[in-house]
Amino acid sequence: MNPTAQVPLHAAAFQPRFAMSLTAAAALALLSSAALAQQAAAPAAENQLETVVVTGARASAETAQAIKKNSDQVVDSIVAEDIGKFPDKNVAEILGRVTGVQLQRGLGEAGTVIVRGLGGVATLLNGREFFSDAGRNLFLADVPATMLKRIDVYKTQEATLPEGGTAGVIDVRTNRPFDFKGAQLFVNGRMEHRDKADVRNPDLNAMGSNRWKTDLGEFGALVGLSYQRGKYHDERAWVGDPLTFTNAGRSIVGADAVGRVLDLGDRKRLAGNFALQWKPSADKEVYLEGFGTSIDHRYQQSFLVAGAPVFEPTSVVTVKPGTNYMDTVTNSNYVGWGFTSTQAKRDSVSNAQVALGGHWDVTDRLRLSTELARTNSQIDWVNRILDSGYTPTSTIAKVQDGGGYIEYPGFDLARKGNFRINGGVDVRGEREGKSTDWRGDATYDIGDGFFREVTGGVRLAKRTAMSIGTTMPWTTSFSAVGRSAADASVANIFSVSPATWGDYGVKQYVYADRNWLLNNGEAFRKLLTNGSGALTPYDPMTLFDDTETTKAVYGRLKFGFSAGNVPVTGVFGMRVVQTDQELMGNSRNAQSGVVTPVNIDTSRTDVLPMLSLKAELTSKVIARLIAGKTIERPAFNDYNPGVTFTPPGGGVTYGTASGGNPALKPTESTNLDAALEYYFARTGSVTATVFEHQFKNRVFVQTVEAPINGVPYRISQPINIAKANLRGYELSYRQFYDFLPDWLGGFGLEANYTYMTGKQTDPNTGAQGPFLGQSKSSYNLVGLYEQGPVYARLAYNWRAKFLAEKPYRTTGRELWVAPLRTLDASFGYSFNKQLTMSVDVTNLLNQAYHDYFDQTPSLVRDVRYYDRTVGVSVRWKL
């Protein structure tokens, strides 16, 4: 299917010529032996890493500290001391232990990663840009932890790194065969139990690697495979939007609905990677490597929406002590309302990247390198929704334990005969992204004078992003509407939910079955349309098909001098990048309904300087000062010139309209970092970093309300806001207590704390407020133990409250999330050098996620609970 057939295609012929020219350039470089760098994407950054060892020997910690002391940038890393030994399942979960990194969970796993309160993070795989479908960034939960060599989190921008992240750059590094001295083989099997889902999930991983010396040089080959299955059960008990009503002469703030949401899913994730290396001589090396994932995610959001009789004069309403906030509402003679809604979804995802690269040490001072990479990512998605209503006669609703409570005395919500079909919709879509990028670099070692080393390079990249979907309106006009869920013609569509967790009233309820909806698409469409099972055509107004071509030239000069008796080294870098965009979408005439193509071309050039200074105040104390400029391009869908209209329906009384803004500019950030580091032992350090970001053209969604043909609509569009700022500091401590006697010497501790504050102007209100998702304070405490065959880890994470949404829907209110805390643990025992067994537990505290309105915890929105997991792993290594 070619969704762009509805409009003139962009210059598609350019892509083959572009890719061929890059391939020819790479081939020429190889044939001339000027080829390719194993670390091409960050040629000067390999020895500039601050490393946090998760597990491992004192030698690894000592090496990590030496690397940090010699670094040029502010970079936090997590390193696997041994293959497959991370206690976490994926990259996103691992990052939660890094200083200044905060996570947000959902759909059974950690997903969103925020660095220093910002979501604008560029993601790289082995130094190369990587992304998910039509987005800018890779969904980091898709990368299994067992494939990792390390993760580098750059908080300051290096000129040789691809631009695109105002918050920083996350570089995921995988193993290559030359990383090992010889043959390697490991197999890891893990079984995980989830308490709320009450399931056992398998996790299988294997990797093999070897290297051989021949007459043609040294060769190496590595292959890795990972399979994960994750059935999960997340849930929430919610309270509706706040409103004011009168009861018994009192003005009360409450809600006219409460309910539950069950997020139930089954995610199957298959991943693989390979790496081939060839070293024909001591001064040349070539590699070919690839990484891919395939994900089949079937899940549902099943809602219970229960009316609360707050406007009934016969209702008895109580309030929270000392407030006018509703506590309970009871009415035993009320013909109420309620419904359940199943949103059955399926995401079929594939991601793949292949890269060819290498390097040539022309002399003992000059290295040439190059790399050619191709990335493809796509998703096909489906969302089928069916609502079923019920009519209770007695209702008790409460705000209890941070959530909404609902109970119906004498009324069975687990009985199909109490439900009737209300309405439904079937929507689908697809997104894809592709890129071809090439780079070539040269590094020259000048010597030991004032100028030490110079690096220069070029990067050419072409990126495409496409998205299209259907906008089938909510329908209630088909013949099955009003039919009992117990009727033989539809009874197989419905099932009873699993039991909910906690004390929030109703435990189970009838809802449309996810598997039936996903497995019977044609039958569902026939139900909605009274006979036609045909797929709904894609809506041309949802289409965006964009091409972005970037040409970057960059340079990096390393220098050094003495200020009195203090040695000072520094790096000055400059990256100049030209960005050309071809934006394609559609426009619909509001009067005639005629759709016409829209094509917009834009071009801009950004100059991104960087300066880093490091002073060795003593043999144990290092001071750093780093300044630079970065950019973050808007999401591709934010450029979409079309506007998509969704009329009211499904209980929503207003329509929505959303579109992009082709005139958007990239967010610019001017950054300053200052650090002081004290190394008091071979494996002990205390560090402090102060940072500030000054933003220009930050992207913000502006929402206005306006009638369209007499129907109220909320119209949203991204815009650039003039200025914003963020500042804060980070503290970090690490020590292994080798000086303690006997078994006590196995203990170690890692601790870090981050404080930040920032302001940006809300274009909807003109008021200044915090960044979304930013906690002012957060910290990690990780206790480690390793002695002989025993190792253990206990990790605690805490983050302060944060603003999640503003404005919240049509209320104009702020939605805040209460402080979050998590505790994870792992314990392992090595029977010998080959066999290890471990047990790991996540969410030991059964963390409750509470959110509320306007920084008033009594004004509850919902409470959420996630699975506690217990995993048992067996790892065998050759």
User: Helicity, in percent?
Assistant: under 10%
Strand content: over 45%
Global shape? globular
Distance between the termini: 47 Å
What does this structure look like?
By secondary structure, this protein is mainly beta. Helices cover 6% and strands 59% of the residues. A hairpin with a 2-residue loop joins strand 14 (257-281) and strand 15 (284-307).
Key phrases:
6% helix, 59% strand, disordered N terminus, mainly beta, 22-stranded antiparallel barrel
SSE inventory with pairings:
Blueprint: H1 14-31, E1 50-53, H2 58-69, E2 75-79, H3 91-95, E3 101-106, E4 109-115, E5 121-125, E6 128-129, E7 148-154, E8 168-174, E9 184-194, E10 199-214, E11 217-239, E12 243-247, E13 250-254, E14 257-281, E15 284-307, E16 316-319, E17 326-331, E18 338-361, E19 366-390, E20 395-400, E21 403-407, E22 420-445, E23 451-469, E24 494-496, E25 510-512, H4 514-519, H5 521-529, E26 539-563, E27 566-588, E28 595-616, E29 621-632, E30 643-646, E31 655-659, E32 667-681, E33 684-708, E34 711-736, E35 747-761, E36 768-769, E37 777-787, E38 790-799, E39 802-808, E40 813-817, E41 820-830, E42 835-842, E43 848-853, E44 860-865, E45 869-877
Parallel strand pairs: 1-2, 5-8, 31-34
Antiparallel strand pairs: 2-7, 3-4, 5-6, 7-8, 9-10, 9-45, 10-11, 11-14, 11-44, 12-13, 14-15, 15-18, 16-17, 17-20, 18-19, 19-22, 20-21, 22-23, 23-26, 24-25, 26-27, 27-28, 28-29, 29-32, 30-31, 32-33, 33-34, 34-35, 35-36, 35-37, 37-38, 38-41, 39-40, 40-43, 41-42, 42-45, 43-44
Summarize the structure.
With 878 residues, the chain is mainly β.
